[in-house]
């Protein structure tokens, strides 16, 4: 497995990876997904010996104080092979100088959330409450796009 930084993205390849983990919010608009990747601070991929995309992780960061891990995606055909762990550990080394290294995931009560919580805990991550941090806040997920509206 080769972990590497990437800056150009094949839409069909990326779409296939995100579809493999049923990320419908990302797969509705592949052009938007590719723009999101291109606008990320860092995107790293995991590829097998044949060059097949097996996993991807990306960050949003100021590269000084905070690193937010936006996605860690591994094709289920490659689960339990250490790919997700290798991606996150790469990011943890890369951003070890940052004061905060954060990520969010689905609620523990959901099937996806239960698996993600177990994965993050296996890496030694703690919940915000366990770290004695305030809860995270944000508006609802499904809200109107107001970029073109007049204030």
List keywords for this structure.
151 residues; alpha+beta; five-stranded mixed beta sheet; 31% helix; globular
The strand count comes to 5
Considering DSSP H and I runs of 4 or more, what fraction of the residues is helical? Answer: 25-40%
How many strands, which pairing sense, and closed or not: the largest β-sheet? 5 strands, mixed
Rg (C-alpha, Å): 16 Å
Overall SS class = alpha+beta
Q: Within the largest sheet, what's the order of strands?
A: 1-2-3-4-5
Report how far the terminal alpha carbons are from each other.
49 Å
Number of helices: 5
Shape: globular
Poorly predicted ranges: none
Order of helices and strands: EHHHEEEHEH
Global mean pLDDT: 89
Strand content is 15-25%
Explained architecture:
With 151 residues, the protein is an alpha+beta fold. It is built from five helices and five strands. It has helices at residues 11-20, 24-27, 30-38, 83-94, 111-122; strands at 2-5, 42-47, 53-61, 66-74, 100-103. Helix 1 (11-20) packs across helix 3. The N and C termini lie far apart (49 Å).
What is the element layout, followed by pairings?
Elements: E1 2-5, H1 11-20, H2 24-27, H3 30-38, E2 42-47, E3 53-61, E4 66-74, H4 83-94, E5 100-103, H5 111-122
Parallel strand pairs: 4-5
Antiparallel strand pairs: 1-2, 2-3, 3-4
Helix pairs in contact: 1-3
Q: Summarize this, please?
A:
With 151 residues, the protein is α+β, with helices and mostly antiparallel strands.
């Amino acid at each position: 497995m080769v972990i590497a930084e990437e800056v150009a993205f094949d839409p069909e390849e990326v779409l296939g990876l995100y579809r493999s983990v049923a990320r419908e919010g990302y797969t509705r608009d592949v052009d938007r997904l590719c723009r999101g990747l291109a606008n990320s601070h860092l995107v790293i991929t995991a590829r097998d010996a044949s060059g097949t995309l097996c996993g991807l992780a990306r960050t949003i960061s100021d590269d000084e104080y905070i690193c937010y891990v936006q996605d860690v995606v591994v094709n289920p055909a490659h689960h339990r092979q250490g790919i997700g762990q290798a991606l996150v550990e790469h990011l943890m080394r890369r951003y070890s100088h940052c004061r905060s290294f954060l990520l969010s995931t689905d609620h523990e009560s959901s099937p996806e959330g239960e698996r993600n919580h177990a994965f993050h805990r296996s890496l030694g991550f703690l919940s915000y409450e366990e770290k004695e941090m305030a809860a995270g806040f944000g508006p609802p997920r499904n809200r109107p796009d107001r970029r073109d509206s007049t204030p």
